[in-house]
Design brief:
Number of helices of chain A: 16
Strand content of chain A: 5-15%
Structural class of chain A: alpha/beta
Oligomer: heterodimer
Distance between the termini of chain A: 56 Å
Order of helices and strands of chain A: HHEHEHHEHEHHHHEHEHHHEHEH
Number of helices of chain B: 23
Shape of chain B: globular
Radius of gyration of chain B: 23 Å
Strand order of the largest sheet of chain B: 5-6-7
Largest sheet of chain A: 4 strands, parallel
Shape of chain A: globular
């Protein structure tokens, strides 16, 4: 396969190692672990997930690793090519500072932090053998070209609208190309059998996440939103073998289900929607939980939505499997990069009804225009239906934590 | 007429389940105890009126033509199995199908034991009413244990066996069986020969039809008379001038055809294209081809608007040409020609792949009807039939149920897909737009996935196979409704059944 990037203007990979910044990154992770430790009731094996998230490079290297950006890339393709998928969207505020060495200041903190990780020689990003980026926003699309200097990179095209009839064929072709890119990289054969086995594994994850979600809707305090995010992200953001994750997360789910009946909660129930929150950027969640709210459900592509929907296969052929992957990953996504925001509005309203939530928190990542623009309709629609909505626009820095706390406390008062 | 016979005939009326379903739909639309009582009253009123009508001999003969031996099975087994709330009463109801099943098996055993000494094996001799009750009971019991997809396969196979092999395997009585054997010895399969088949459900006064394409050109007549196109051709052959002139023979033929039309309309109104997705033997044969393609892991053709439009319009033209030729039949001269052309009595059937495939499915390659010569309308019945057979095989081998977009019998059922008693409904709020419903859809329907506004997503092409409902990963997103009552609902895979605790 010919590369998507011409080698004519290729640059040597940039590097920058700042021990102070490295220590700060480590501190932010430890601080988050400390804050979460104060949650009253949590599954006993949370340390397993926290370790996988905060030190992914410490995990044994079983197979080549492929870094993924964005939830629109189906990890099953990577697994079928004989590699471990690791999502690299980074939530570390300190890493964002690093990224500014390459990216302009006016790019979203997620992109800056993610790129910043590539400059560090001991990061997960640097340990990956290939990178796949979905061109879901302008920053990601162009970041792909920058990353091509570091690693073999594939930028996956994203159709403008989620019209399955019109675009399923082209997304399927693109996934086929991606599969061939990965297979050529790792010397495997792109066949249906490996893909089917990978889909079986991730579908098991979907079932488990759906179960966790259901437990949380009934008894949100049996498993707090931060712990839920930690569990889900441990399987996405680390090269943890999925079988191990399934066993541990299953145990956590059992524990939460057992604990469920003891803890009745009368705290305000909220639905969280908006931009991704990647470990350790749980700033808003920290404040929400500390202010006494229960986030009962979410639509975040780093939360339940990341692996809630299973891949529905009907046939054994590779094309059919790829089309099924496209359906789950691209056409079932709630990302604002598509033309219509109906799906996310539908989901938010549905979650409000089924999870009996009393309000919605819309998390806007500063400098992400897609969510910013969608905020107008979301607020109006929710207002029409008399559901209180709080839009929080913030970035990775910790400085506005107290302002957020004031706004959130005021919002919770109104519920 | 005895009370028992009256009850039996009321139960056999094709309008009884229709009345029940309409009453249920009305009660469902505006719930409340009074409404339910009103609906029950309306059904009782219908039963009383029907019993009263049976006392008038002339009317009674008319109504007889509208009755079907299959209907009691629907009224006594299928409707309660679908509509009774899943409580203790429902478990008690299961005794009814169990009893019917034993009754039907007992009848078969008794009939076999009662065969006179020296008679050779006569398959299963069973009255159609008992067969229908037994089959429905078996399926109602099995449906409890199976998921939608396995259950549909079971229904497909069992209805295929009855419709395809019922012609010799499920005869009514020994005399009936022997008559069939006799016909079989002397019958010559020929394009102009219509008496080559004689279905089980045929008597002097009425013909039994089913929607979809149950062909009678199978082993020794199949079980029912045929499909809606056969009926339409029959109607077009009626010489209405002779009916108007008071010809008793022609009037009887017209009356039988009209009654058959009324009952097929009732069945289509209740089931729409469900008959295609669950009972059609042609589509079951196609499923076999599709199964082979799947086993080989070959991809299938996703339809484009052009393909869909071509199939629709060529199917419509095929139906129109067949019916046009059928309408020329009353004008045949003594040599069997019209405008100097030879045309057979059932021109549509002679072109339809069903007439070529069903005999082969039932009897093996020896059953393939001899191809007509080129003297039949310039070879249309030779080459046209072969071309359609090729289209049938190619469509099923490459495009799942692509053929069914061509099938005129299915199009008639499709007219009832909206506005009939069956509906495919969706809660747009629950939908994530992943397209799983399209991925599994044998008809390649996109509108169910795309529609984010409407609740009623039934459409003309849907065959109600309910694969989409089984595949949809979102709880309560898709459901199939009969008379407003959900008969299948989508569930998130980890949930086997709706949980009561999913409420804080």
């Amino acid at each position: 396969m010919t590369s998507q990037f011409d080698s004519v203007y290729r640059l040597p990979p940039a590097a920058s190692d700042n021990p102070g910044n490295r220590r700060k990154q480590q501190f932010l992770q430890e601080e988050q672990i400390r804050r979460q430790a104060q949650v009253a009731a949590r599954p006993s094996n949370m340390a397993f997930f926290e370790h996988a998230l905060s030190a992914p490079t410490a995990l044994p290297r079983r197979r080549p690793r492929v870094g993924l950006f964005c939830n629109l890339v189906p990890p099953e393709l990577v697994m079928a090519a004989g590699a471990d998928p690791v999502r690299l969207d980074c939530g570390n505020a300190a890493a964002a500072v690093h990224g500014e060495e390459i990216l302009a200041g006016d790019v979203c903190p997620l992109s800056k932090a993610s790129l910043g990780m590539f400059l560090r020689s001991d990061s997960m990003a640097a340990a990956c053998d290939a990178i796949v980026v979905a061109a879901s926003c302008d920053a990601k699309k162009k970041m792909g070209e920058l990353l091509a200097d570091f690693k073999p990179t594939y930028v996956m095209a994203v159709p403008p609208e989620q019209d399955h009839e019109r675009h399923a064929a082209e997304v399927t072709r693109d996934l086929d190309r991606l599969g061939r890119f990965l297979a050529a990289r790792f010397g495997t054969r792109p066949d249906g059998g490996a893909l089917r086995r990978a889909i079986e594994l991730t579908n098991a994850r979907s079932r488990l996440v759906a179960r966790l979600q259901d437990i949380r809707i009934v008894h949100p305090r049996a498993l707090g939103i931060r712990d839920f995010f930690t569990i889900v992200q441990a399987s996405l953001f680390s090269p943890l073998p999925l079988e191990d994750w399934l066993a541990q997360a299953g145990a956590a789910a059992d524990e939460a289900a057992r604990a469920a009946d003891e803890r009745r909660s009368l705290r305000p129930r909220l639905v969280l929607t908006g931009a991704p929150m990647a470990w350790p950027n749980f700033k808003v969640l920290n404040v929400l939980e500390e202010c006494g709210a229960d986030v009962v459900a979410d639509t975040l592509c780093t939360g339940a939505q990341a692996c809630l929907d299973p891949v529905v296969c009907d046939e054994r052929g590779r094309t059919a499997l790829l089309r099924a992957l496209a359906g789950r990953s691209v056409f079932g996504a709630l990302c604002p990069c598509f033309i219509s925001q109906t799906r996310r509005l539908h989901r938010v309203l549905d979650l409000c009804a089924t999870a009996h939530a009393r309000g919605v928190v819309h998390y806007l990542l500063r400098l992400c225009q897609l969510f910013d623009v969608e905020n107008y309709r979301l607020e109006k629609v929710l207002k029409e239906r008399r559901i209180p909505c709080l839009a929080l626009r913030t970035d990775y820095s910790q400085e506005d934590t107290e302002q957020l706390r004031v706004r959130i406390e005021a919002f919770l008062e109104t519920l | 007429m005895t009370a028992l016979a009256t009850a039996g005939r009321t139960l056999s009326s094709v309008f009884l389940p229709l009345a029940i379903l309409l009453a249920l739909a009305a009660a469902r639309r505006r719930p409340g105890r009074l409404r339910t009582a009103g609906a029950a009253g309306a059904v009782l009123l219908f039963v009383a009126a029907y019993a009263e009508a049976l006392r008038a001999p002339e009317l009674s003969r008319w109504l007889y033509r509208l009755e079907s031996p299959f209907v009691p099975a629907i009224a006594l087994v299928v409707l309660p199995a679908l509509f009774l709330p899943r409580t203790g009463a429902w478990r008690a109801f299961l005794l009814v199908p169990a009893a019917f099943l034993l009754l039907a098996l007992g009848a078969i055993v008794r009939n076999l034991a009662a065969l006179p000494a020296g008679t050779r094996f006569a398959w299963f001799l069973v009255h159609p009413q008992l067969l229908a009750l037994g089959l429905a009971s078996f399926l109602a019991l099995a449906g409890r244990l199976l998921d939608v997809n396995r259950f549909r396969t079971l229904v497909r196979i069992s209805t295929f066996l009855v419709l395809m092999y019922g012609g010799f395997a499920f005869r009514q009585s020994l005399a009936d069986y022997q008559a069939m054997k006799g016909r079989r010895m002397t019958a010559t399969a020929d394009i102009a020969n219509l008496s080559e088949t004689s279905p089980v459900l045929r008597d002097a006064d009425r013909l039994a039809y089913l929607p979809a394409a149950p062909c009678r050109f199978s082993a020794d007549g199949g079980y029912v008379q045929g499909c809606v196109m056969e009926l339409l051709q029959r109607g077009l052959q009626i010489n209405w001038r002779r009916v108007a002139a008071g010809d008793p023979g022609e009037a009887a033929v017209a009356a039988i055809a009209l009654a058959a039309a009324a009952s097929i309309l009732a069945l289509a109104f209740a089931g729409a294209r469900w008959w295609c997705g669950w009972t059609c033997p042609l589509s079951a044969l196609g499923d076999g081809i599709d199964w082979a393609r799947r086993r080989l892991g070959l991809p299938h053709v996703k339809t484009t608007p052009t393909i869909r439009a071509s199939y629709l319009f060529s199917g419509l033209s095929f139906g129109a040409v067949g019916l046009l030729l059928a309408s020329a039949v009353p004008h045949l001269d003594a040599q069997g020609r019209v405008l100097g052309c030879r045309i057979p009595l059932y021109p549509f059937c002679k072109l339809c792949p069903g007439q070529q495939l069903c005999p082969v499915a039932a009897r093996g390659l020896a059953g393939y009807p001899p191809l007509p010569g080129t003297d039949w309308l310039f070879g249309l019945f030779r080459f046209g039939a072969l071309a359609l057979l090729a289209l049938f095989v190619i469509s099923f081998a490459t495009g799942r149920k692509l053929w069914c977009r061509f099938c005129p019998m299915g199009m008639v059922g499709g007219l009832f897909n909206r506005g009939g008693l069956l509906a495919l409904r969706k809660q747009p709020l629950k939908c994530n737009g992943c397209g799983a419903c399209n991925e599994v859809c044998p008809m390649d329907i996109h509108s169910v996935a795309r529609d984010m506004e409407h609740e009623d997503v039934s459409c003309f092409d849907c065959v109600y196979c309910l694969k989409c409902v089984a595949a949809c990963p979102r709880t309560d997103c898709l459901r199939a409704e009969l008379a407003g009552h959900p008969v299948a609902v989508s569930r998130t895979p980890h949930l086997a059944a709706p949980t009561e605790e999913s409420r804080p």
